[in-house]
Amino acid sequence: MPQRSNAFQRLAFLVHKSLAPEWLVTESDMLVDLHTGTLREVDITARRLVATHQLVFSIECRDHRRAADVSWVEQMHTKHQLLPTSKLALWSRSGFTREAVSKAKLLKIDTVSQAQSVQPKWADLAHQLADGSVQLVTPTLTPFVDVRLPSGELQRFENVASWQFYDSNGKVVGSIPALLHEILHHEVSRTTFLDHAPLGESDFYVELVPPNEWFVDVPGSGRGIANRIGVGVRTLGERARLSTISASRGDRVMTLAVAPLRNGRFEAVFEEFESGEIRSQVNVQE
Predict the structure, then answer these.
(1) Which of 79, 101, 154, 213 sits between 20 and 30 A of 123, alpha carbons compared?
(2) Topology at the third CATH level for domain 7-118
(3) Each residue of 47-59: pLDDT tens digit?
(4) Whole-structure pTM value
């Protein structure tokens, strides 16, 4: 069944997807009508097996300009009375009327609103992201090693992605995977790429000269000495306008921010709490 989703439904899906791993979260799920036996579409479900009983948390989303009214609350309540829904939550991008909120509480239905009028003043991040942009730098690392072979010849090797380095006693002292990980996660190198990489493609170079003799096993040539380890870094710098949508719920505001990239999409979910705490999940999809 193809997913029929919008940005607001996507926000709700991502928020619930971050539940504990024992929850199975599905977008545009199909539940069986207990009266007719036909399948009914539900925007989002979160399922969990407790002992021998399955809990089904259902979420319905409304992306309209007008606040959701009593009739929509009643419509959703009637729909889910005939579905295996254990708990129902309604998300509305334009908020709810007072009567709708009152009816939802009476029916024990949770309500979540995106309406600007209900976003608290302390939700600074949600307001800042609304007019923001994102600058993303994607690095591609290509390592090589210059090796002094047993014959005395100095030769460059480029197919070294899994190479390890040893001291004179045969103890592992480093590896190419560890070096690449360090470059990508070191604060200095990450800041350098972000601050100095221009928009579009650009090239950087990182070099490591081993502090002592590092030995490496060269296929077909025996054990040589690593004279120099180099890493070519090609960066792709992009800046894109953020498209954001937020939802208020109790003491938190959840915001989904997305931006198109050359080879995919930037997507981030932020949870901003009244206490000042901010949680985030950032993902780049290809």
Answers:
(1) 101
(2) Trna Endonuclease; Chain: A, domain 1 (3.40.1350)
(3) 988 877 889 999 9
(4) 0.62
